[in-house]
Amino acid sequence: MEKVEIIAYVQRQMASTSDRLRAFTHDRSGKPYPKRYIFFKLEKHLRDFLAKLEFSPRSIIITGLRGVGKTTVLAQACANLLQKSIPSQRVLFLSLEEIVNVLDSSLTETLGAFQEIIGEKLDRTNTPVFLFLDEVQKDAHWGATLRSLYEKNKNIFIFCTGSSAVELQTNADIARRFLFEKLPPLSFGEYQMIRRKVNPVKGIKQKLVVALYLANSGLDGYNQFAQLQQSALSYLAKASRDDVDHYMKVGTMPFALSFPNEDAVYDAISLMLDSVATKDLVQFGKFEHDTLLAVKRLLFILAENDTTSIYQLERVLGISRLTIQNVLGALEKTELLIRVPAHGSNMTVAKQPAKYLFMSPAIRMSFFRITGNIQTYQTRKGKLLEDLVGAHLYREFVSRGVGTLRYDATQGGADFILQIENKR
Fold first, then answer.
1. Where is average pLDDT lowest: 175-179, 218-222, 252-256?
2. Which terminus of the chain, N or C, has less C-beta within 10 A?
3. Domain of 173?
4. pLDDT surpasses 70 at 173
């Protein structure tokens, strides 16, 4: 694209920032979307930067599955910043997906156009500039571009979203420079806060985690739980059995709470999975067209089975084992699946198939709907609970690098074996 065209595009984006932000932060009736826990953490990072605190992070990237609200959080943070009397020409909110796929341009060219508009070089400005960049991984050279800005000028605050934590964290240009914040599907506390306006009991989550996983003994854990019992029961009294069921079926996905019915949610999930297959997976491997077409069928098989061997998948799908392994690895990177290997020696792990869980039980439920069985939920509720627990353990321990998750492959064995810090 010609330089003058890119400049014109950035000018239009800057002029329409408020309207574009509102499209992401408000529903169709004009009501603002609720703010999730992560928003307040990100707001603090912005405040610390504005206060010029020495060790405050100035480059942050939010990662997570499609549909969990990364763009909404990014837009809320940007809108909140503009309310602090920050000049609008010092704030740039862009979608790299649009720049790369629609305009056939790049982040480097776009930032060059932004510099032309504001009349100064970003690597030399003495006044803070804020970059809000959605889906940065769409530009193959985004890491080198942002690393250069980060190293040359401490007055640049960079705020990004991306779909793959694994892929982004292994980018040598930014691995040590960016603070990674994962945005998972909604927790039950967030779900209650958004749907029922019920605020969580302050500090109780961490106390429950300590009592459940880090107590010195069973008795110690029991005593800690006893002290928390009244607060926990008081909170749960504001929820109903219907809330728990609705949360498991659709409520982990933020967009579900604004949809009229469950079928509409599952239709949206189906479209989201299409985007994962056609847009996201191509970033992690050169998959053939027929392979990408088989992705949803592969996910359906995983949804229906506790464990599925690669050999069985090869036979059913007609795709080579190596390709299937690469596809499963890519689906892990998009944070759609959680891989849980068998517990035991290396030989045991090699012989036993891994168990694949969904980051959100709503995704598994969307495949259950295809069977058309009215009893689907009740008969398969255990699998949805397993997804919930697996996602919880993954968030609290595995993704933070402080634990490993396995399952017991023996008949009647444990669904999960959690090892915390190679000790517990």
1. 175-179
2. C
3. 3-183
4. no
